[in-house]
Amino acid sequence: MNTKILGIDYGKKRIGLAMSMPGVSFALAYKILEMGPAGVFGLIETIKEIIGQEQITSIVLGLPKQLDNNIGLAGREVIQFADELKKNIGIPLVLWDERFTSKQAEVLLRDVNMSHKDKRQQVNVTAAQVMLQSYLDAQASQALADKPAQDEPLEDN
User: Fold this and answer.
1) Other residues' Cβ atoms within 10 Å of the Cβ of residue 36
2) What are the C-alpha distances in Å from 138 to residues 75, 131, 141?
3) CB-based contacts of 99, cutoff 8 Å, min separation 6
4) Other CB atoms within 10 A of residue 40 CB
5) Which of 17, 29, 110, 126 is least buried, going by the fewest C-beta atoms within 10 A?
6) Distance between CA 18 and CA 32 in Å, rounded?
7) Who contacts 10 (Cβ-Cβ below 8 Å, separation ≥6)?
């Protein structure tokens, strides 16, 4: 399948983007977007441009959930953003649990040689990468589970 997926870690100030490439089973950090004066609508226009330029076939948007699996204020904001985004794009959009992705991103960046400010900005794109990788891994596991078992040929040794 020739899919190219855009992972989005939505934040009030910064939006992290990650991408999967066709035929590759891992997520790559892509870009950090700043929430500009045009707000969500400007962000949606930028995402639409990226969809066209990069030939994106679907979007995975991180949904922050609480530990008890409920949707809090941040989750409701993401759902509102998802609803607006869906109205403006012609490709599938999946909401994906992003619990702990920012913490995982911080751990991954802890030993990287860059300033504290740069690390703070990099957390969003790394969190998007972690979240998209989680989605890709789940899809791969599901595909393996759905495959019928096949007999392995015996080797003569």
Assistant:
1) 11
2) 21, 11, 5
3) 64, 65, 67
4) 14
5) 110
6) 9
7) 61, 62, 77, 78, 81
Structure-model confidence comparison of residues 28 and 112, the more confident one: 28
Domain boundaries, the chain: 5-133
Whole-angstrom distance, CA of residue 33 vs CA of residue 21: 20
Distances (CA, A) of 143 to 24, 103, 131: 15, 28, 19
Task: Please tell me the distance from the alpha carbon of residue 13 to that of residue 35, in angstroms, as a whole number.
Answer: 5
Q: Residue 90 has which token pair?
A: 């012609």
Distance, CA of 106 to CA of 127 (rounded, Å): 8
Q: Which pLDDT tens digit goes with each residue over 17-71? A: 999 988 778 899 999 999 989 999 999 999 999 999 999 999 999 998 888 888 9
Nearest C-alpha neighbor of 15 from the set 49, 39, 23, 148: 39
Domain 5-133 superfamily per CATH: YqgF/RNase H-like domain (3.30.420.140)
